[in-house]
Design goal:
membrane, transmembrane, Phage_phiKZ_Orf197, transmembrane helix, DUF3307 domain-containing protein, mainly alpha, 251 residues
Amino acid sequence: MFKEYFVLLLLGHILGDFYIQTNKMAQKKEKSLKWVLIHCLCYGSVMLMISIPIISLKIALAVLVAAILHLVIDVIKFVYILLKTKKDKITLTIERNIFFVDQALHFVCLFGITYWGIRSDVSINAWKIIKDFLEAAGVSEGLTISWVLALLVIHKPANIVIQKLLMIYKPESNDEEKKKDNNAGRFIGTVERVTMLIFLSIGQYSAIGLVLTAKSIARYDKISKEKDFAEYYLLGTLISTIIVIVSSFII
C-alpha cells in the first residue's frame, strides 16, 4: 500500500513540477512571487486531477497538504534566490545545489504525507470503470501507474537532472552548435533510457551494452579528439544509466 500511495503522489509531483511547468515559467518564478503562486496553483490542480479516480476526504486533504508544502518550499527558494541575486552570488554550482535541495525537500514531504496516509488507513480505490477496463486489458492498476511514472521520470526530469549535474563540466561551444547538441542529445537520451528500461523490465541486461555502444559509435570521432567532451559524454552516459536503473525499481 505504501508504494502505491507514494507512486501516485510522485506521479502528480512529476507532472506538476516538470511537465506543466515550462522553462519560461521556471525563469519567471525566480523573479516574481506571482509566478510562484501561479505554479503552485497549477501544481495543486494537477495533484487533484491525478487523485480524482480515487478521491476521498483523506486523499483530498493529503493533496491539499502536498500543495501547501510545495508552496512553502518554493517561496523559501524564491526568497533565497532573490537574496543571492542582489549580492551577485548566483553561480552554476549554487544554481545546481538549489535545484537538488528543492527536489529533495519535495521528495521528503511526499514521503511524509505517504507515511501519514498509511498510518491513517487511507484506502486507494479506483473507479469501477477504470478497474474493469484494466482487467479487460489484462494489466494491474499498480503496474500501469508505475510504468507511466517510470516513463515520465526518464524523459524531461531525467534530462533536467543530467543538465544540472553536468552544467559546470559542459565544454564550451558556439550558441548554434550548443542548441543543436542539446536538442538532439536530449531526444537521443530519452530514446536510450526508454530502450534500457524495456530491456531491464524483461531481464535482458546484456542488451543494455548494445545501446551504449551504438550511442558511443555516433560520437566516436568527437570523443577521440576532444578529451573534455569525452569526459562530459561519459559522465552523462553513466548518470543516464543510473537514472534508468533507479526508475526500474518503480516498476
